Automatic annotation (TrEMBL):
Component of the plastid-encoded plastid RNA polymerase (PEP) complex. GO terms for biological process: cell division; chloroplast organization; regulation of cell shape. This is UDP-N-acetylmuramoyl-L-alanyl-D-glutamate--2,6-diaminopimelate ligase MurE homolog, chloroplastic. Residues 25-102 form the Mur ligase N-terminal catalytic domain. GO terms for molecular function: acid-amino acid ligase activity; ATP binding; ligase activity. GO terms for cellular component: chloroplast. It comes from the Eukaryota. It comes from Musa acuminata subsp. malaccensis (Wild banana).
């Protein structure tokens, strides 16, 4: 496809064009490091960097044309072997449509379900995918845990909602391999940045809305509007369906987005198509809402009730979501991705419903992210736990002590008010009797929690879930809460046998 043909098919009108429009485009890319010979390079402007800074690198790697949104030294660009430069008003705006056009609009050949909400997206997408798979439809997945493109082939999910170029490329591969459907998490930042533009959704799902990502959105209203962008695409009553959790106070807003005039279904044990009896292996009251969302999708697209039930029951659990770590110990260890106030609250409420002897909670808050949620999460953990151990969770380039000070403010303490206790910092008991400890080293914090576990206790490790890394500075180090807990449990069992 030539550059001229691509522009004509998309209807994009450049403000300026330099060079040869007959340049043959064999690929599209918005990451200069991934550019190959024959690619069209988009100088996308991101939250942390600007693609215009890497034009020279892209041209040196073989880009035959570039898309930019500011006038620059065209002679310099064309001098590096690049044959054409296209200037537009916004590279970010034209990228989704140009990428979709280049790859042949693959989403139009797939049945696409988008799930948005603060909590439950990953579990819901896995449930919906399982329903489709049980019906015999090969189904792709874009989720926080992984991307599934062809059968059960899993790719690392570098972010919840992939960039436009990556999404279109993977969907095109799905279509070529015979995949019939795609279920994806539509994250608020991805929606705001246009990563879901150029995708043709058949079903949009809203799970819930609670505080998160205010470091990016700044206000809850802006956060809500970003998620609403998924529903604004639902405009054709004959093709689009909306599934909304009407128990959430924000439900009316999402119902009003778009023009799809489709009755909404509130699904409990009994549905308009008949009664359902679902025996799910997933624990926690909040998973009921995830299951209900998946059931509603199945009903919205006309699936048989038995297929819906079979698909949901086939999901035994989702990585890092209320995941039990069992090495034969007399107490339970649960690893969960909960990293927002609401998610942590729901998680600990679900744990309390299991009537444990004690709840021991280990968690941290990410660096360079929403500072306002840090004290809130500590207050929630202290109110709902018998022991709380605060630790690090992806501090990035922020001082871990500063993060912990923000967290401690939720219970009226500071880092300076502690006393040393076996390598941990311990604080006076809180008014409700909760014991509070701090250890910046996450591995040592986990060790402390497991060492104090007794029969009937439940140890909750929150925040990282399925993640397999810890980001310190600009370095991403291997660290998996599930692996660490298993190793610590085995070591503890070995010590017990030697006594």
């Amino acid at each position: 496809m030539t550059l001229a043909e691509l522009l004509e098919k998309t209807g994009v009108t450049p403000t300026s064009i330099y060079g040869d429009l007959d340049a043959l485009i064999t690929g599209v890319q918005d990451d200069s490091r991934e550019v190959c010979q024959g690619d069209l390079f988009f100088s996308r402007v991101g939250s942390k960097t600007d693609g215009h800074l890497y034009l020279t690198e892209a041209c040196n790697r073989g880009a035959v044309a570039v898309v930019i949104d500011r006038e620059t030294d065209k002679d310099q660009i064309l001098g590096y072997g690049c044959k054409a430069a296209v200037v537009v008003n916004s590279t970010n705006s034209v990228l989704p449509v140009l990428a979709a056009t280049f790859f042949g609009h693959p989403s139009r050949s797939l049945f696409v379900v988008g799930v948005t909400g603060t909590n439950g997206k990953t579990t819901t997408t896995n449930l919906v995918r399982s329903i489709f798979e049980e019906m015999g439809y090969r189904t792709g997945l874009f989720s926080t845990v992984c991307f599934i493109v062809n059968g059960d082939e899993k790719l690392e999910a570098y972010r919840t909602t992939p960039e436009s170029v990556v999404a279109q490329r993977l969907m095109a591969k799905m279509v070529r391999s015979g995949t019939k459907a795609l279920v994806m998490e539509a994250a608020s930042q991805g929606l705001e940045e246009g990563r879901c533009d150029g995708l043709d959704f058949n079903v949009a799902v809203f799970a819930n809305l609670t505080r998160d990502h205010l470091d990016f959105h700044e206000t809850m209203e802006a956060y809500k509007k970003s998620k609403g962008k998924l529903f604004a695409k639902m405009v054709d009553p004959n093709r689009h369906r909306k599934v909304v959790n009407i128990d959430d106070p924000n439900a009316p807003y999402f119902i009003d987005q778009g023009n799809a005039d489709v009755p909404l279904t509130k699904v409990w044990v009994s549905t308009p198509k008949g009664a359902l009896e679902i025996n799910s292996g997933m624990l926690g009251r909040y998973n009921i809402y995830n299951i209900l969302a998946a059931v509603a999708v199945g009903i919205a697209v006309g699936l048989k009730l038995e297929d819906i039930v079979s698909g949901i029951e086939a999901v035994k659990g989702v990585a890092g979501r209320f995941e039990l770590i069992d090495e034969g110990q007399p107490f339970a260890v649960i690893v969960d991705y909960a990293h927002t106030p609401d998610a942590l609250c729901r998680l600990l409420d679900a744990v309390r419903e299991l009537e444990p002897r004690r709840v021991i909670t280990v968690f941290g808050c990410g660096g360079e992210r929403d500072r306002g949620k840090r004290p809130l999460m500590t207050k929630i953990a202290a109110d709902k736990s018998d022991v709380v151990i605060l630790t690090s969770d992806n501090p990035r380039n922020e001082d871990p002590s500063t993060i912990l000070d923000d967290m401690l403010a939720g219970v009226g303490y500071t880092m300076q008010e502690s006393s040393p206790h076996g390598g941990n910092k311990i604080y006076p008991k809180l008014p409700n009797g909760c014991t509070l400890l701090v250890n910046e080293d996450r591995r040592v914090a986990l060790q402390a929690a497991i060492a104090m576990g007794k029969e009937g206790d439940i140890i909750v490790v929150a925040g990282k879930g399925h993640e397999t890394y810890q980001i310190e500075g600009d370095t991403k180090k291997l660290f998996d809460d599930r692996v660490e807990c298993r190793e610590l449990l085995r070591a503890e069992a070995s010590r017990e046998r030697d006594r």
